[in-house]
Design a protein that fits this description.
The chain is an alpha/beta fold. The protein has 18 helices and 14 strands. The protein has helices at residues 11-23, 34-44, 60-70, 85-94, 106-118, 150-162, 179-188, 207-215, 225-228, 244-262, 282-288, 293-299, 314-331, 340-348, 354-368, 406-424, 429-436, 440-447; strands at 3-7, 27-31, 48-52, 75-80, 98-101, 169-172, 197-201, 233-237, 273-278, 302-305, 337-338, 373-374, 386-391, 396-401. The strands form four sheets. The protein has a five-stranded parallel beta sheet, with helices on both faces. Helix 4 (85-94) links the parallel strand 4 (75-80) and strand 5 (98-101).
Length: 459
């Protein structure tokens, strides 16, 4: 039995989720607001927290940040409404195990709860100073990138060309697309490979601690990220959220490194390769006045665009197999196979959370797979939304929804078939009913309209 905290400002949904968790045998605490949820979180120290994104008083993301800071062992599931996928991805980046999109089935909630409770404590992301979104570990033993798509091969060629340069690199791309993977590849392919590779997320610390981490405390630089990375590489993630005041200090510091290097007077504590990454195009930030133009040009000497997973579907199979192998090595189990229908779903899904979301999907699939094979039913509901069925006789492909009641699907198909038959018969209800072998009344009923008022129109 686990201790679960459920936070939602809609009482009916809160009660329903709480009841669902109690049915599973867990001890549940419920909170109707974000602030009450934080109080309960501090008091109960739950094993798992289920929190809605939109609460009446504060954001669910703020609750997750509080949990990360004070209760890092509490696993998190985010509940979000349609149209808020970006926030759900942000929650996963902050360490949430998974997210559920409303409306969802209680069975999906229960499965996700069990998977979250089985996951290692601390969630799927480390939110400390050298935080790493799950995608950070997507490396071959040699440190090379995983991917067979033309876009990834192109990036690999860039990495090989720039590896031994000291010029700053700017990596741009969506959250979870693999920017840290590319940065690590640059480091591992360079002459600095045996030296430290240090990472800092600009959003992970408040401004005063961020300043201390980058430039040291009062009276001197002291122990800084740059000092700990001496001889190696520094990756500053999410540089687009770096406060403007610190942007100015970073610009001056990078200028000092450049000047000392050109005069062969660079001390070992400043000898680093600087790489920055951003999930938001920095040119847009410059245009809006939130990012210094001079700093942008200084850090973007070598710009690299990291494509989202949905634009390189050729890499999904090899990445999926990589995650399955890693899971098998960690658990001492055999590597399951992915059947062709499940792979078809993986390759047709949009992956708003990119490679990190794919990794979570494979973790879930391993937990549910039976007989050494991953099937569509083993994938997250948000992935297994449709499947393509090829009709060999008609030489056509149909997109069929997965997870809807059969009666709903049949009813929808009947309406579509009746409309097409009406078009064929020029809108004649009598001919259509006769061709379909039903009465006029049945025709109207299946169309869901009233016989005495509505008219069936062709087209």
């Amino acid at each position: 039995m686990a201790k679960i905290l459920v936070i939602d400002d809609e009482a009916p949904i809160l009660n329903l989720m709480g009841k669902s968790c109690r049915i599973q045998g867990h001890q549940v605490t419920e909170a109707l607001s974000g602030r009450d949820g934080i109080v309960a979180l501090d008091r109960e120290k739950p094993d798992l927290m289920i929190v809605d994104l939109k609460l009446g008083d504060i954001s669910g993301l703020d609750v997750i940040r509080h949990s990360n800071e004070h209760h890092p062992d509490t696993r998190v599931i985010m509940v979000t409404g349609n149209g808020t996928i970006e926030s759900a991805v942000e929650a996963m980046r902050l360490g949430a195990f998974d997210y559920l999109t409303k409306p969802f089935e209680l069975v999906d909630l229960q499965k996700t709860v069990e998977l979250a409770l089985q996951a290692p404590r601390g969630g799927s992301a480390d939110t400390g100073r050298e935080s790493s979104f799950p995608v950070s570990s997507i490396l071959q033993p040699s440190g090379s990138m995983i991917g067979v798509s033309s876009k990834m091969r192109e990036i690999q060629k860039i990495v090989e060309k720039i590896a031994n340069s000291d010029s700053p690199v700017l990596l741009e791309g969506e959250f979870g697309s693999g920017k840290q993977m590319v940065a690590r590849s640059i480091h591992n392919a360079s002459k600095r490979a045996s030296a430290p590779f240090k990472v800092l997320q600009c959003s992970a610390l408040p401004e005063n601690l961020l300043e201390s981490e980058l430039f040291g405390g009062h009276g001197g630089r002291g122990d800084t990220l740059f000092g700990r990375a001496a001889g190696g590489t520094v990756l500053l993630e999410e540089i687009h959220v770096l406060p403007v005041r610190l942007q100015s200090k970073l610009e001056s510091y990078l200028e000092e490194i450049e000047a000392r290097r050109s005069m062969n007077e660079l001390p070992g504590s400043m000898d680093v390769r600087f790489i920055a990454s951003s999930a938001k195009p920095l040119q847009e930030c410059v245009a809006s006045g939130t990012f210094r133009e001079a700093l942008y040009y200084k850090i973007s000497v070598i710009p690299v665009e990291v494509p989202p997973l949905r634009s390189r579907t050729e890499d999904i199979a090899i990445l999926s197999e990589h995650f399955l192998r890693r899971h098998a090595e960690r658990t001492g189990s055999s590597v399951p196979e992915i059947d062709k229908y499940a792979m078809r779903l993986l390759e047709s899904y949009n992956w708003p959370g990119n490679v990190g979301e794919l990794q979570n999907a494979m973790e879930r699939a391993c937990a549910f797979a039976e007989g050494g094979r991953i099937r569509p039913v083993d994938l997250p509901p948000k992935v297994a939304q449709k499947v393509e069925i090829t009709d060999e006789d008609e030489k056509t492909t149909h997109h069929l929804p997965i997870g809807v009641p059969l009666s709903d699907y049949v009813r929808k198909q009947e309406k579509l078939f009746i409309r097409e038959t009406l078009k064929y018969n020029g809108g004649s209800r009598e001919k259509t009913a006769s061709m379909l072998g039903v009465s006029i009344a049945t025709l109207y009923r299946k169309m869901g309209i009233k016989l005495e008022k509505d008219k069936i129109m062709a087209g």
